[in-house]
Amino acid sequence: MKMKFIKIYLLAAILLPAGTVLAQHMDSIPRVTPFSGVKDYRTWSIGFNGGGSSVSTPFSAPNDFNDIDFKNAGVVYGAYIKKQIYHGFGLQADFMRGQVMGTQKANQTPYPLNGLAGGVDKFKTAIHWSASLSGVFTLGTINWLNKQATVLPYISAGGGYMAYHTQVTGNGGYSYVDENGNLSSSKPSASKSFFIPVGLGARFNVATGVNIDLGYHLYFVNDKKFDGVYGTGRDDKFSSLNLGIEFALGNKQKPQLAVVNPAAQLAMDLWDRNEALKEELKASSEKNEEELQGVQQQIVDLQNLQKDSDGDGVPDAHDKCPNTEPGMRVDGAGCPLPQPKQIIKQEKVVVTQEDRKVVDEAIKNLEFDLGKATIRPNSYESLDRVAELLVNKNFSLKLAGHTDNTGSNSLNMRLSKDRAESVKSYLVSKGANPSRIEAVGYGDTQPIATNDTPEGRQQNRRVEFTLY
Questions:
Q1: Which N-terminal stretch is annotated as signal sequence (predicted)?
Q2: Is residue 306 in a domain?
């Protein structure tokens, strides 16, 4: 039975590291800037565990009691708090209570003990408390096959101190063993001893910040009477197989340092930078195309230096007033000669507070398709009221388009102008006089807020209405 139990432990130790091959891809991995330290991670965690204990260990050196009694197996339970220092290393403080029990084989002579008739054939040690500090080395955090592993093997080692009572049983009944190794009919003061905990296991990342902890631990006790008898003359030891759960502490938006794959974080950062470079290249290509078109236009202009499009006798290259009407008298610069002045009576325009309210509502409700000059349908109702106001009161209106600083200057200038023209076209389609509407674009030259924040850029993307 002992060899079977040992083989199970050894098989678990072999298979746990292989679990990383079965790791599953995590769909959502929080982005962390590489080489930024641990400030963007959750490094503290707490855990609770419990399991069975045994005096049997995988080592050949025997205990005073070697047999495994599953019917009377000991139970241990505890909690821990851990501080992750690096991806693969952390410090863990463990607190444990429980029992360790052992019996001799049926054909083994009971160990003699002064004062207990027939010798000792079983013992039970109650661990009142134990505290230890261990270094935990996590394996498999750097994974080149998957973005994040769900199974993370670990090994640990450290030192601790415990307090316990040992009770031995033989044909003569049972008795306590005091801290000097002597029998006592009454419960003596607790024995205390240093011990060295060594463990291996695996943590299973089942949810964000939640891990299932399966571990096997050996405890080397610096005491020969932990099991009540001196027996082999060696320091005693015992083992435990534990199952527990671990919770990461801190900001839930941050990943847990112990389970994050640094190779994946580095790769994702490179992917982000690659996408940013693609966007820069796209913007640069658009700018180059725009400049090429400008050069082509200049070629056309040079070819048309001698062209007189309006037939006024002045070449276009020197015509300061192109497109004059046929037969109009012009000067040497191609501009019409002065005509007799006509006195035009100016009508007084009064803009009321209600008129401004109609315009302000239209500005507030005005929306365009992203990156386009197309007005969205939910803006029509407010613009209809502005058109009615222009028709009824014969107002003039200036439309000034503005953008944020995203994109090139020329693209921003064109988009702002197009959006102002789009509003003008809509108002004209509703009966407004096109000669009384002026549409201009200023691009990103007149911001009313900072362009360093999304809110500021939203305020800068606007079309201003001015009644007069």
A1: 1-23
A2: no
Last residue of a domain, one of 252, 269, 286: 269
Digit-coded pLDDT (tens) for 129-167:
999 999 999 887 766 656 667 888 999 999 999 999 988
**pTM of the predicted model as reported, rounded to 2 decimal places:** 0.51
Mapped to the 3 state alphabet, what secondary structure does the chain carry?
CHHHHHHHHHHHHHHHHHHHHHCCCCCCCCCCCCCCCCCCCECEEEEEEEEEEECCCCCCCCCCCCECCHHHCEEEEEEEEEEEEECCEEEEEEEEEEEEEEECCCCCCCEEECCEEEEECEEEEEEEEEEEEEEEEECCCCCCCCCCCCEEEEEEEEEEEEEEEEEEEECCEEEEECCCCCEECCCCCCEEEEEEEEEEEEEEEEECCEEEEEEEEEEEECCCCCCCCCCCCCCCEEEEEEEEEEEECCCCCCCECCCCCHHHHHHHHHHHHHHHHHHHHHHHHHHHHHHHHHHHHHHHHHHCCCCCCCCCCCCCCCCCCCCCCCCCCECCCCCECCCCCCCCCCCCCCCCHHHHHHHHHHHHHCCECCCCCCECHHHHHHHHHHHHHHHHHCCCEEEEEECCCCCCHHHHHHHHHHHHHHHHHHHHHCCCCHHHEEEEECCCCCCCCCCCCHHHHHHHCEEEEEEC
pLDDT in tens, 279-319: 888 888 888 988 888 888 888 777 766 677 777 777 877 77
Domain that holds residue 254: 2-269
More confident residue, 193 or 39: 193
